[in-house]
Amino acid sequence: MTAQVTEKTTEIPSVLRTSPDITLRSDISVELVDHNASDLSVVRAARVSTAGERAQHEDKGAGYTEGLIKYLMRCRHGSPFEHNYLTFLISAPIFTVRHLMRHRTWSFNEESARYRELEPVFYVPDESRLLRQEGKPGHYNYVPGRPGDLEDIVSGASGVYAAAYREYTQMLEAGIAREIARMVLPVATYSSVYATCNARALMHFLGLRTHRPDAAYPSSPQREIELVAEGMEAEFSRLMPLTHAAFESYGRVSP
């Protein structure tokens, strides 16, 4: 199964959009490529404690499923939410992929610059990105940039990206190993990664990587990883609507 769940495509000012050496992007894509996830699987995992192997063949209807899932979420019985999986293919700048890999209960496979030559594709923010930060770490807000900020960022970044990629390709042409040559590339270089998790791990990720003022523990994630989270949450809510609704009802806290 392959389904595109979200892709944020934006316009870069035309004067800055193209370069003879590099490609600039502002989008981050999240694609669901495989899954085995349903609300019923949560109920069957929970019911095995009292029904044994009979639980695998039970389906007591939507009302029972919803009630039991709410109970499990409210009382924080988390293990029944682990017997499923969702696999995503993400295309994002390396600094965003590193945020994703902070979630250590997930499984990851990322393209490797040891084994392949990376394409000259680099991230720049678009006009919707809040560019300035006010306050101290842990107690700050993002605010819009001032006139000219975006143009300065894109212009400066593209110059650095082009220079870095020239050095990279010159090293490769000179016979330097890819694993050495890659050291000059910036963390804004795009990478692709497979990421697999269960619903419990995904809920923990969503609680940290989305900004929801109504959450029990509001978080202030970097916008780029929040775009990844939003794409994943769209599929989670589609595949496991009762689990997602209970997650929302009880403060967006993973059980």
Overall form: elongated
Mean pLDDT: 91
End-to-end CA span: 28 Å
Count of discrete alpha- or pi-helical segments spanning 4 or more residues: 9
Number of strands: 9
Q: How does CATH name the architecture of the domain at 3-37 and 84-124 and 189-249? A: 2-Layer Sandwich
Organism: Streptomyces huasconensis
Subunit structure: Homotetramer.
Function: Catalyzes the reductive methylation of 2'-deoxyuridine-5'-monophosphate (dUMP) to 2'-deoxythymidine-5'-monophosphate (dTMP) while utilizing 5,10-methylenetetrahydrofolate (mTHF) as the methyl donor, and NADPH and FADH(2) as the reductant.
Keywords: FAD, Flavoprotein, Methyltransferase, NADP, Nucleotide biosynthesis, Transferase
